[in-house]
Amino acid sequence: MNRIDRLTAILIYLQTRRIVKAKDIAVRFDVSLRTIYRDIRALEEAGVPIGAEAGIGYFIIEGYHLPPVMFTRSEAGAMLIGGKLIEKYSDISVNKHFVSAMEKILAVLNIHEKDYLEQLNTHIEVLHAQHQTPGPVTTNYLSRLQTDLAEKKIITIDYHSAYKDEHTVRRIEPLGLCFYGDHWHLIAFCHLRDDYRDFRVDRIQKLTDTEKTFDPNRHDSLKKLIRRMVLSTELYPAVIRFNIKTAASIRDYKHYYGFVEETKFRQYVEMNFMVPDYSYFATWIITFGEKAKILGPPELMEEVKKLAKIIYYHYHGDHDAGHNKDEYTSELKRMPE
Which fold is adopted by the domain 151-229? Predict the structure, then answer.
């Protein structure tokens, strides 16, 4: 990047943030601090009103704005791909705002870039995997949650827990949004449980602002909470033998069930998984019937046997030795969805 391009990029970078440290600018553009000091001085000499606070950073004085920004072809293409992903992996509220933003971006493109995007648009698609529910998230809360996060507002949600099949009203302090497992999750401090909780956004049925705020400094950072609540879940080993055809059929989504590694043999494939819960993993394994064989551990085998008995009773209604109807009914209710 030549110096003129870098100066323009630094000016845009400063306008996207309230205040920026010189060190962060240097890292962003892969140059030395001395170079950044010279570039800032050059911008000031060109008439850009840049303010500075010792030990804090640089900022653009309020009221100064760049003329309409021109996007390169590559930048416009990147925005198009981003839009395709947002369409599939955000909700209605974010989609609406992004469409509006893209219209403003298209308005400043020259005719050649507009033609380029129009042609490119027909050649890019983002599809859900076969095991996913097709279509965008149908909730309408992501934009409101972003506002509540920025303004540090306490909110009340009506929440449906699919695992327990129960509805509860929670008063929470929202701390961050995180996308994993094909869903948006809200990490928050829950007043009802007096602890941190992970809420799936698509299971929020109603959201109400309380107009009260909270002090975020009394909570851990979002990164620490994610490490503790999402990434540090205790995992347990499981070894499954699949026939060759079945192993090929789950190639694209086995990773969603904790796949670690596999060993291929002539007539079958042995796969190693690390899973957070044997009962939930068993509900997946049992769907393969005789096409999958559990090699270990015994605890997983017992979970599958229990599920098989429950299913048998559900369709035949016969009492199995040592079990009664109430016990089976109770087990059915505890099965994860």
Answer: SH3 type barrels. (2.30.30)
